[in-house]
Design brief:
74% of the residues lie in helices and 0% in strands. It has helices spanning 8-41, 55-80.
């Protein structure tokens, strides 16, 4: 008498079930990674909403802000004495 492991229909069904489970696991893992990356890289595309400024502009504006804050601190020390 043959065992269930020799049944070709059962073996095919088990292979198909394993392949479907593996495919589902890969697709859910890649969809989580893709969603995170899409949000990060979307700000560098031309169709991103909002104002578009370059990195050098951001650097100049942030250094200017720091300079103004330092100047105001120095001015506050001189006027407060």
């Amino acid at each position: 008498m043959k065992g269930d492991s020799d049944n070709p229909n059962l073996q095919a069904a088990l292979r198909k079930r394993g392949a479907m489970a593996e495919k589902k696991q890969r697709s859910t893992a890649s969809s989580h990674r893709g969603a995170g990356n899409a949000g990060e890289f979307k700000m560098y595309t031309d169709d991103a909403p909002g104002i578009q400024i370059g990195p050098s502009t951001v650097l100049i504006l942030s250094l200017s802000f720091i300079g103004v804050v330092v100047f105001l601190h120095i001015l506050g020390k001189l006027r407060g004495t």
